[in-house]
Automatic annotation (TrEMBL):
Family: Belongs to the PER33/POM33 family.
Source organism of the structure: Bemisia tabaci
Topology term for the membrane: Multi-pass membrane protein
Compartment(s) of residence: Membrane
Keywords: Membrane, Transmembrane, Transmembrane helix
Keyword Nucleotide-binding: no
This protein's name: Krueppel homolog 2
Pfam name, any one: TMEM33_Pom33
InterPro entries xref list: PER33/POM33_regulator (IPR051645), TMEM33/Pom33 (IPR005344)
PANTHER family per the UniProt record, alphabetical: TRANSMEMBRANE PROTEIN 33 (PTHR12703)
One Gene Ontology term from the biological process aspect of the record: endoplasmic reticulum tubular network organization
GO cellular component: endoplasmic reticulum; membrane
Amino acid sequence: MGDANQSTPPKGWDSIKKHCIEHKLDVALWFTRLFTITFTLNYFIPIFGNPYSAYHRALLANAATSALRLHQRLPRVSLSAEFFNQLWNEDSAHYLLFSLIFIYSTPVALALLPVFLFSLIHFASYSLTLLDALGQNSWWGARILISLVEFQSRNILRLISFAEIFLMPLCIVLLILGRTGLLTPFIYYRFLARRYVSRRNPYTRNMFRELRVYTEAIANKESIPPFIRNALHSGIAFTCKIAPQEQAAS
């Protein structure tokens, strides 16, 4: 009887198997996010393989995640203006474009930060779902790590939005240095504009406002030389000028 009990898989694993069969797309997203996390870590800590290859694989994995998420959000494809408008408003479409922007350029380490952190948040969230399917008391150490990620999720999203914004001037610098293509800053501006007016994620828009308030506070200090004050105000005015038209509605 002891041998029979040992050969019978735990009920929790049966539940995991059933869950994976019923939620194939969600499980596929969990794996692509795991790949993004793994390849990003391998880029910064090159234990296995070439870090250059790991960089591109991380962006490819993120592109796969974005494509799967788009399929999940918009399962029916149609060649209509309404469909393409819905597609362009999806956050997943934004990050599919993001991956395509940087996958064809020389490695930009900062470009991996947003995709890594987004993958980490969603990977942790769905890992909790899998652990719940496995059993309430299973893998308590992993549950603690997941709780830490979820507790810091707001700060993580703010860090992502800051990285998105800072990548814009970085693209211009890389263009001047000859490390990226001529169209990269222009395409990235379109990406950043869509992030600014995102319906589901207001963090980029809020970060722009926080940076504006912070910059204005610095510019208005009496100790700031006039030429720096003028430069800061000019930068604020230029940024507001090129901001999307939806700014007022937002």
